[in-house]
Amino acid sequence: MVSAPERFKRVSGMKTEELLREFTGRKAAGVFSAYVPFEIYHSAGYHPVYLFTWGCDSGLAAEYLPGFCCFPGRNLVEHALAGELSRLSCIVFSATCDTVQSIYDILKVILPDIPVHYLKIPALLSREIAMEYLEAEIDQLIRKSGNIEKISLRRSISLYNEKRRLTARLNRIAWEITPTDYYAIIKAGMILPVEEYNLTLSSFLREIEELNKKVSPSSSIRLVIAGSHFGEENIFRIIEESGMLVVGEFLDGLTLFRRGEVDEENEPLSALARFIFNQVATATKVNFCNRREDYLVDLVREGEADGVILLRRKFCDPYGFDAVLLTTRLEEEGVPYLIIEVDEPGYSGQIKTRVEAFLEMLEIGR
Amino acid sequence: MMDDYYALRSGENTERPVAYVTSGAPVEILEALGITTIYPENYGALCGARRASTPLCEIAESKGYPDDLCSYAKGHLAASMKPEKAPLGGLPPPDFLLCCNNICQTVVKWYQALSDYYGCPLFIVDVPFLNPKEKPEPVYLYLKSQFEELVPEIERIAQTRLNREYLSEVIYLSGQALSLWTEIRSMGRFKPSPVNVPDLFMAMAPIVVMRGKNQAVSFYSEMLDELKRRVTNGTAAVPGERFRLLWDNIAIWPQLLPLYRLFAERDGCFVVDTYTNSWSMNFGSEDDPFEGMAKVYSKAFINLDFQTRLEIIKCLARDYEVTGVVMHANRSCKPFSLCQPLLHRLLNKDLGLPCLILEADMSDTRAFNVNATKERLSAFMEIVEIISES
């Protein structure tokens, strides 16, 4: 019998093609950007799976993209050209940044046999007229994804709400597990069928909560990790090797929705739109009511974190601006931070050295 | 003309309220409400052309903005923080900001940063990405609702009510300028072309910053007359024109004249481009002014899906009898640049057009390598010559 963390780790370490081979029973919908409600595809009979980055540049994408495209964009095009997305029944994008829009355009040309969907998310997520527009857009997406009955959509919403409740429980005890386990569990939630994920995570949480296996809070430096994420597992490994704990994550590509649940009593379409609106915006959007810097500071306070590691994506305008926004606020609050520029994933000695220097600084600060 | 424009927007000469607006914003509403508008993107081009952008970018980088971020945004943010180091002493501080994301998503974050810096209100006109082949009506409706919501906000700042008749007059003037601009651009169809794209780049400021004003209409009427005279007299923009080129993307402002001179020396004239095409629009004859504006502003060239843009470029290439395409892979403008390698393939395959991709930046000189560019340009023009003569 494989333990829950082992199962999560195995799945989170699989590349998309391997995953799709493992879950051959259902057609798969590959999701590339934030804000896509997995519930829609689940209720239409798909297995929604997030398309994390995998491997390094082989140069294949260079024929289709300039060098100043971010790694996740290059990586997806590379996998598409290599035929590694051919098992997908559809690919879903949402309007987040200019790069995502371009990658959507490119994939439509290079993968003519796979339907490519695009959910238009308003840029400003705090006004009612935008919500009405989003409702219409979600309705379009539902029509594109197949014939969905309301009862089926409600069932899927309920399952994903359950997943959100479990993840919230996990986040409360994040510091009791190793950073790489924590990462693997969160990442697996974007990949595994929701039924299996809920079952496995639920039993794992029961075990942990029963054992009450606590790591002494005073013995280790506590971190929040934030920024742009598309598969930077090695950052978590480096943190773990440095002896620090992750007490919270604010990684946009790792968790798509952070606040609350979809209202199961309400009409599903407007409930989904309202749910998206109540979220903390990703770096690509603006939400005057739920500001990102406030969320990050709350996360630091709730987790009693000593500092923040901020992942800034290379060639990414939204996260370039976001890093200044977040760090300005962290400085005002007196929270130490370290910015790590991320491009191709990989174990970097230079990053390890910087993380260790940050650790020393935090220890002195204590 | 632009000196006068900026003179009226400096220090105490500035009539308030002042709004910073993006180049594709529905400025007619502001114009009709008597708001003084300022375009940070135009200022970015000015900084680029004066080769002042790079030191400004370095100031922004020292404040934490990464080196791969949009150079217009960085240059302007630095000019706001350190006006004493910026051309024209920077721009007057805004009373509010109007950001329209029909040109890119980066402007949303740029304007959010400005709003935080100046502590002033930010209004966002959100224009979803448009594929005209899919039902565009929901996008038009969404935009119309936004205009209706925007008006009372601006009225409150302007302390006056919007006169809808005056708005229609402003839209009429704006439409006239856009029509004249479209006609000016179409003069490149003549052989030899009376206009070279760098001329358009130098003359485009009024269509960006003076839409809805009489000055823009007068200026472009005169320019059109001059181009017509040139056609009558057979005056070529590039004497001895042999090769007719299409330019894709924003200009490389710091290299504007030296770069195009290199093509002109090889008898290459840029008869058409995609960048100034963004202002070739028509308000139509909608009864509801917001309806017309919604249609125009959602169809900004760069807000369209790739297939639509490809078709537009193919039409331009055919109509202007283009013999080669030069694409500026602009590190600061991803929506214009990321699909260029694909565009290159398809133009080559479908129309047999030779294409050159030049990697640079619209205003930051650090991204431009003069010698490498010269070498690639020479090789490209040789190919254009061989293909043109075969």
Structural class of the secondary structure composition of chain A? Answer: alpha/beta
Terminal-residue CA separation of chain A: 42 Å
Strand order of the largest sheet of chain A: 2-1-3-4
Q: Which spans of chain B have pLDDT < 50 for at least 5 consecutive residues?
A: none
User: Biggest interface and which pair forms it?
Assistant: A-B, 52 and 45 residues
Indicate the low-confidence ranges of chain A by residue numbers: none
- Work out the helix count of chain B: 17
Which overall shape of chain A is indicated by the principal axes computed on the Cα atoms?
globular
- Describe the main β-sheet of chain A briefly: 4 strands, parallel
Major sheet characteristics of chain B = 4 strands, parallel
How big is the Rg of chain B? Answer: 21 Å
SSE inventory with pairings:
The complex is a heterodimer of chains A (366) and B (390).
Chain A (H helix, E strand, L loop, with lengths): L3 H9 L3 H7 L4 E5 L6 H6 L2 E5 L20 H11 L6 E7 L3 H13 L5 E4 L8 H18 L4 H23 L6 H10 L5 H18 L10 E6 L5 H9 L3 E7 L16 H10 L14 H11 L4 E7 L3 H17 L3 E6 L6 H17 L1
Parallel strand pairs in A: 1-2, 1-3, 3-4, 5-6, 5-7, 7-8
Chain B lengths: L1 H6 L10 E4 L5 H6 L3 E3 L1 H10 L3 H10 L8 H11 L14 E5 L5 H13 L3 E4 L11 H22 L5 H23 L10 H7 L1 H5 L4 H20 L9 E6 L7 H10 L2 E6 L15 H10 L7 H14 L4 E7 L3 H4 L2 H12 L3 E6 L9 H20 L1
Parallel strand pairs in B: 1-2, 1-3, 3-4, 5-6, 5-7, 7-8
Helix pairs in contact in B: 3-5, 4-5, 7-13, 8-11
